[in-house]
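ok, trying the design again with the full structure, not the truncated one.
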């Protein structure tokens, strides 16, 4: 029984090239001032350059080689992103929760304004009092939402 293994040195070289390129590119955009600017303000340029070099490394190979080079080059960028996310003072989801709380508060303030305007134009005292009372309830809810947002307390849109 004769057992043989085929080793594609060109594929290994391309993958190694992609890995080194991805690590180098990640280091450039992480530690170089111009790279940091590009990553923060012109992300599309970093993507185009990264994928363009990947395609250059994979030039002449098939789609499998191209996919392998892109996967290997992504190791550096993905590692950079995960390290940066782990060092962030606050997870991105919390920032969105704060934004959602503020949006809900803005909606409540719009409702309050509408109720107070309607109360001012209404002739019936009992209807006016009911609208002002409801507006005050919304004011208190908005105040609580803003306090939660300010201190980063957990928030769920379902708790409205």
């Amino acid at each position: 029984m004769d057992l043989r293994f085929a080793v594609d040195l060109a594929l290994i070289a391309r993958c190694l090239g992609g890995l080194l390129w991805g690590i180098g590119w990640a280091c450039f955009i992480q530690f170089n001032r111009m790279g940091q600017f590009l990553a923060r303000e012109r992300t599309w340029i970093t993507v185009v350059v990264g994928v363009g070099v990947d395609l250059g490394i994979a030039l002449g190979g098939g789609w499998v080689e191209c996919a392998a080079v892109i996967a290997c080059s992504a190791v550096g960028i993905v590692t950079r992103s995960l390290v940066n996310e782990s060092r962030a003072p606050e997870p991105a989801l919390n920032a969105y929760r704060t934004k959602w709380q503020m949006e809900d508060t803005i909606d409540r303030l719009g409702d309050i304004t509408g109720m107070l305007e309607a109360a001012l134009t209404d002739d019936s005292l009992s209807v006016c009092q009911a609208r002002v009372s409801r507006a005050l309830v919304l004011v208190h809810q908005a105040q609580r939402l803003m306090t939660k947002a300010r201190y980063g307390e957990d928030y769920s849109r379902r708790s409205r």
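Keeping the full-length input from now on. The CA atoms of residues 117 and 131 lie 9 Å apart.
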